[in-house]
Amino acid sequence: MSTFPGISLQPEVTDYLRSVFLNTEVLAAVGHQGAESRFQKLLTCLSHPPSYTCVRASTHLAPLEEIRHKLEEELKKQLCSSSAEELSVQILPHPQIPDVLLLPVDGPRPVQQLSSEVVVGAQCGSAVLRGAHVFVPGILASPKYMKTGDVVSVLSDLEGRCTRGATTFQGKTVFVGNGVAQIDRSGIFCTDKPVKGIGVRMIEPLYRSPSFDGVLPDLAFLQNLPSVVVGHVLGPRPGERILDMCAAPGGKTCHIAALMRDQGEVVAVDKIRNKIDRIRQNAQMLHLRSIKVYCFDSVKAVSGDASAQDTEGPPFPPESFDRVLLDAPCSGLGQRPSMSCTWSLKEICSYQPLQRKLLHNAVRLLKKGGVLVYSTCTVTLAENEEQVAWALDTFPCLTLQPQEPHIGAEGMLGAGLSPEQLRLLQRFSPELSWDQTAGALHCRADGDTIGFFIAKFLKN
């Protein structure tokens, strides 16, 4: 068992990322020690959750202050009905983004590990670090005689090696807090029917933040801060026709429609059918009617017939949209908390060709004078700044545009872009605002986010 290390990566992936963050341009600018320090901070902070939980408020349905008040009341009820220690609810408006509320996260906290242990999958462990309870499907192993009401420690399996139904596990894990079992072991593993619901209710999480399960689902939407920024950077206006090329699960799609005051048309495309259903559910829950959803591969989204009509959906004729969002499939190396990534270097590097195919189609589908926003939730140069350099070289009609709001850092050195071009990019680099002094974390809300990248282009 490890006491909260940095993210665990394949050695070849670690070497690759080090070469990215210690490239020639970076070394010339900040020196080897500065570059290495930044890289090590990145590895460490990726395994910790951001220091603020970000909520996008549905300000198309109610004023921000009203939503803040309702959320405060709901979370106070949650605390009063819980056996957890008494906590006050602090909800802060974001100083620059009018539809964002921030809730400080308390942690890492001094929680004592117990001898009775429940092992959960890495995805479940990450959710616990962001305020969730342990749901039954996430449980991999539990004590042989675990009963409802037992107090247990929850450990996250870092390498995916724990056998479901085991009573003990000696593999690589990390402790994420203590909770109370809500179900007997037999109810988890000795039944033919899938069991849902909470399996362990967390009472002493390593990081404490509210659970949003069922809390104001139409007014308070959990979304990472950079993902909210993307919608504002795109700048949708009422009456426009906008394409979200890789839309699932629909958080950005719904935000775009809300920013347009639900006037116009937002076309959401994704190739995975069960994810498409999620977009429809989110749109319905948020009372947004301007969203049209299609199950389709955006690699094939451009019609070969420029005069074709697209009343039945994709493929679309060229120059069909006023604005296009390409929140591209990526290696996801900016996601937090992520204590382990078992992907190979080949998998990490497989996204660049796909992203370029999608960028080709995004440019073709965009009207002249239209805006294209490209974003990822990863930290590599190949998927971010190098894609911008390639796009500017490949499509002379594209020019970089200023972003509003611009609360992240500028682009990273290493892709041959000019200082002026780098300043127009927005890279959320949590390692730049993350520090650990005498065991205490010191962060800025704007900087201590997931790793994320945004570029905004105008088609001339």
Topology of helices and strands:
Elements (H helix, E strand, L loop, with lengths): L7 E2 L1 H11 L2 H23 L5 E6 L6 H17 L11 E2 L6 E5 L12 E4 L1 H8 L4 E2 L3 E3 L9 E7 L15 E9 L3 H5 L8 E8 L14 E3 L2 H10 L6 E4 L6 H9 L5 E6 L2 H13 L5 E5 L25 E7 L12 E2 L3 H4 L2 H15 E11 L8 H10 L3 E3 L18 H6 L1 E3 L1 H4 L1 E3 L2 E3 L9 E8 L1
Parallel strand pairs: 1-16, 5-8, 12-13, 12-15, 13-14, 15-17
Antiparallel strand pairs: 2-4, 2-11, 3-4, 5-7, 6-10, 8-9, 9-10, 17-22, 18-22, 19-22, 20-21
Observed structural traits:
six-stranded mixed sheet, 460 residues, 29% helix, single chain, globular, alpha/beta
Description:
The structure is a single chain. With 460 residues, the chain is α/β, with parallel strands linked by helices. The chain contains 13 helices and 22 strands. Strands 12, 13, 14, 15, 17, 18, 19 and 22 form an 8-stranded mixed sheet that branches. The protein is globular.
Q: Biggest sheet, open or closed, and with what strands and sense?
A: 8 strands, mixed
Distance between the termini: 56 Å
Summed over residues and divided by their number, the pLDDT gives a mean of: 92
Shape: globular
Oligomer: single chain
Condensed summary:
With 460 residues, the protein is α/β, with parallel strands linked by helices. It has helices at residues 11-21, 24-46, 64-80, 122-129, 185-189, 225-234, 251-259, 273-285, 345-348, 351-365, 385-394, 419-424, 430-433; strands at residues 8-9, 52-57, 92-93, 100-104, 117-120, 134-135, 139-141, 151-157, 173-181, 198-205, 220-222, 241-244, 265-270, 291-295, 321-327, 340-341, 366-376, 398-400, 426-428, 435-437, 440-442, 452-459. Strands 12, 13, 14, 15, 17, 18, 19 and 22 form an eight-stranded mixed β-sheet that branches.
